[in-house]
Amino acid sequence: MPIRIMTRFSMMFMRPFTLSCALALAICAFPLSTLAQPGAPAAGTTTSALPNPLAAPPKPAAAAAAPAEAAPALTPLAQIPGGPVALSVDAAAWTLVDMLSGQVLTSSNGDERREPASLTKLMTTYLVFQALKAKTIDLGQVVPVSENAWRTGGSRMFIEPRKPVTVDELIHGVIVQSGNDATVALAELIAGTTDAFVERMNREAAKLGLTGTHYADVNGLPNPQHYSTANDIAKLTVALIRDFPEYYPIFAIKEYRYNNITQSNRNRLLWSDPTVDGVKTGHTEAAGYCLVASAKRGERRLVAVVLGANTDAGRASESQKLLNWGFQSFDTVALYQSGKPITTLRVWKGAKKDVNAGFLAARYVTLPKGEAPDLALTLESKEPLIAPVLSSQPVGVVKVSLKGQPIAQFPLIALEDVPLASVFGRAVDTVRLWFTSR
Asked: What structural domains and CATH numbers belong to the chain?
């Protein structure tokens, strides 16, 4: 009798347990529509505060793990709130960018369309460097000089149809001497015609996010359909320095000799400021005097774009003013290092219960000197995060603000894989998620 009672007693409790397990397995196999599907987070985020790693005295940018030139794309261009009093610059438009953080320190009429004059050649050289990287041309290659290139007016390198010239010589002629004839010769070499090369310029502008730019020729001669903006030129310059560091030193060369003619680089700052190592001048009557100047002091690099200055000396002095102000008034500090976890996030239905999250590239912020301890950081993480989770998968956003105003935001990624758990593990988490979501 006692044995029968115990058997019946066990069956009374085992049946519900068995049914619960079966139900859980069924739920695991056929996820409820209210829950996220495996491998993709459901809509919704959880916001939490993160500690400020700069609350202690901040580390300078030089202490960061990532190379100084590993600049982010300048999209969007975040303004710095609470900064020093804005500069008065004697030019039609200007912008000043910190390459490490990608932040704009000051700008005026930065999105106004203007004639870029010979600053156009920055895109020309960008495409030439692309061709060198793709090995469709090489530096020692001899380039035939067409009559079209030879007869090109304006500033010239003085190439001749019957005189051999190499790709390397033409690049120096474009960058140092601002030779319109050299630019045409390179464009014809790469694309066959200057018109075909201009099409490539516009396609590349779209890829780089230069939304206020349109090219009509390879040199920047006056044309109603040829325009750019200070912000776009800054973006292009950052991309040029970032993507082709092996060729960037050419922009620092002060003079170049070809065909027994020596010409000086028109960038006056190369002589007056030893930290300036580029980039390009431009001038037409309609565009005024233009200059893109870049300087590197320590691990920081700033890019200043000045458009429509009144004189050659003026574009140099106003650019110098911008660079000095940027270096003296702001700090660029390493907020997070590459590959190091900054937090862990809960993972559902995974072989592990959490995943390390961080960034593949170091993250920097530029802010007024002494303001680093006042930064506020918040994490917006995707919830629920369902396995499988793949390394480099987006899992949230870190938002950075100063005194209640947004400074920057960085996409957070998983730093490791988290595969699916066993059937039983997924079943348990499915039930837990079902109750959590109610």
From this structure: 26-65+337-436 (2.60.410.10), 93-329 (3.40.710.10)
